[in-house]
Write a structure and sequence with these properties.
This protein is of the alpha+beta class and 187 residues long. The protein has 6 helices and 5 strands.
């Protein structure tokens, strides 16, 4: 499709530039949508009964919590990575959690976790300074395109403070991958 490399399964499911902007993003956003829905449920913010019917809004909040979805964070300094998938602002605890989702090829799961933490480090420091937060953390949620997760996945989910069924995140990634394969192989 992109002509850059041979169309191996690995290339099709996670490395093709032609599929990145639409198909990979759809798969990625569906995993993010599940997490956003769980957060809305936890904080009693209005949401649909089923996660797959949920449509995240840019900003939702209650008295204690604000959840940002796919918003650019305004900064004083020039910072490249300013658009994480989800930002949770805990107004009572004076804490922020920056959550970023990735669905790479299964062999790149660990590498992607490290990449996300490093990528959002400058934003983490800037939010702590600008918003005068006691604690700011970066939490990568990385599920391989074929469902692989690292041994740290559950710890990252625990850091978010939600009960996330790992198999739902894996199933969502796998269904997205199956959709991509059907689309490409039916051409």
């Amino acid at each position: 499709m992109c002509g850059a490399r041979n169309e191996t399964v690995s290339h099709i499911i996670s490395e093709c530039s032609k599929l990145a902007q639409k198909e990979y993003k759809r798969r990625h956003d569906n995993v993010g949508k599940y997490i956003h829905w769980k957060l809305c449920k936890k904080y009693n913010i209005d949401s649909k009964a089923r996660w797959y019917e949920h449509s995240p809004k840019g900003i939702v909040e209650s008295n204690d919590i604000k959840i940002l979805w796919d918003c650019v964070i305004q900064c004083d300094k020039e910072i490249d990575a300013r658009r994480p998938d989800i930002v949770i602002v805990d107004k009572l605890q004076n804490e922020v959690k920056i959550i970023d989702v990735a669905i790479p090829g299964d062999v790149r799961v660990l590498e992607k976790e490290i990449e996300k933490i490093e990528k959002y480090g400058p934003l983490k420091d800037e939010i702590a300074r600008l918003w005068d937060m006691r604690k700011v953390s970066v939490i990568p949620i990385v599920v391989g395109a074929l469902g692989a997760v690292s041994t740290r996945f559950q710890n990252f989910v625990k850091d978010i403070g939600i009960t996330l069924k790992i198999e739902y995140a894996q199933k969502t990634a796998l269904l997205g991958t199956a959709r991509i394969l059907r689309l490409v192989l039916n051409c």
